[in-house]
């Protein structure tokens, strides 16, 4: 009888948790990252309308070169490049990136990183990757923001694909202004010689993937790839980004 009563008590207590979650949601409702609408208890980060507004690239299904891969042709050698979403001004993707970089919503970066990993983990050409390397940001910017958004995306990819993340050794050595309103040439000029490798780095013989939040002109990644290839000319490099401004 005592055992049955204990089991019944545990059952009744456990039944309270959904009610507790609903009450917490009622007092502190989660808002959609893109439009700030109140989310239901079953939604995470984005409301159904903003989810439908996302413009997926579906590059993982391509058998020929993607637009983001062509961006680097004639500039730096890469194995492959992938972007998860197309960036459209005023669209949900822009709001996600803004939240990730300027409103301290790091959770959405990790969530979309997991989504990227789920899209790529069945693709044979991504199976031999040795390490994910987040594109570094200047320590001052990382301190202000509280995180490197590319590192959070990389952590989400790692969780889905089981590929380790390595952040040490690669550094952004100068603090540059925002690239948002710069043209192609100014973006390229703004990132020249911005990156450095410390003695902690060792990419010898590896296939590394640089992870970024958004690719526009590719200037940042070009500078980063050149820096690494100067020291490790025989390594293989690929690129993954959350978004691509076509």
The CATH topology is Rossmann fold
- Uncertain runs with pLDDT below 50, 5 residues or more? 1-17, 185-189
Mean pLDDT: 83
Q: What is the domain total for the residues?
A: 1
Strand content: 5-15%
- Quaternary state of this entry equals single chain
Give helix and strand order, one letter per element, not per position: HHHEHHEHHEHEEHE
Q: What composes the largest sheet?
A: 4 strands, parallel
Q: How many helical stretches?
A: 9
Brief description of this entry?
With 246 residues, this protein is an alpha/beta fold. 41% of the residues lie in helices and 14% in strands.
Task: Describe the fold and architecture.
With 246 residues, the protein is of the alpha/beta class. Mean pLDDT is 83; it is low at 1-17 and 185-189. The chain has helices at residues 2-27, 48-53, 67-70, 92-102, 107-120, 139-145, 149-161, 184-190, 219-231, and strands at residues 81-86, 131-134, 170-172, 195-197, 207-215, 236-244. It has nine helices and six strands, in the order H-H-H-E-H-H-E-H-H-E-H-E-E-H-E. Helix 5 packs across helix 7. The chain has one domain (45-244): 3-Layer(aba) Sandwich (Rossmann fold). Helix content is 41%, strand content 14%. The longest helix has 26 residues, at 2-27. The strands form two sheets. A four-stranded parallel beta sheet has the order 1-6-5-2, sandwiched between helices. The protein has a two-stranded antiparallel ribbon with strand order 3-4.
Any key phrases for this structure?
4-stranded parallel sheet; globular; Rossmann fold; alpha/beta; disordered N terminus; 246 residues
């Amino acid at each position: 009888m005592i055992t049955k009563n204990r089991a019944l008590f545990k059952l009744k207590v456990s039944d309270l948790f959904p009610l507790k979650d609903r009450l917490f949601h009622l007092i502190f409702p989660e808002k959609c990252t893109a439009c700030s609408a109140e989310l239901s208890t079953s939604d995470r980060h984005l409301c159904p309308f903003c989810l439908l507004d996302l413009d997926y690239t579906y590059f993982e299904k391509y058998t020929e070169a993607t637009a983001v891969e062509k961006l680097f042709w004639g500039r730096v050698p890469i194995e492959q490049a992938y972007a998860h979403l197309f960036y459209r001004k005023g669209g949900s993707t822009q709001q996600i990136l803004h939240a990730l970089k300027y409103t301290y919503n790091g959770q959405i970066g990790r969530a979309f990183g997991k989504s990227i990993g789920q899209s790529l983990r069945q693709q044979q050409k991504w199976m031999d990757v040795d390490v994910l390397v987040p594109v570094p940001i200047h320590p001052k910017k990382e301190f202000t923001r509280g995180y490197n958004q590319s590192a959070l995306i990389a952590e989400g990819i790692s969780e889905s694909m089981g590929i380790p993340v390595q952040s040490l050794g690669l550094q952004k050595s100068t603090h540059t202004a925002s690239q948002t309103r710069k043209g192609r040439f100014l973006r390229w000029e703004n990132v020249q010689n911005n990156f450095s490798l410390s003695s902690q780095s060792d990419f010898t013989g590896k296939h590394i993937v640089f992870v970024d939040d958004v690719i526009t002109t590719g200037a940042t990644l070009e500078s980063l790839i050149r820096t690494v290839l100067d020291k490790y000319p025989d390594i293989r490099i690929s690129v993954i980004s959350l978004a691509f401004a076509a």
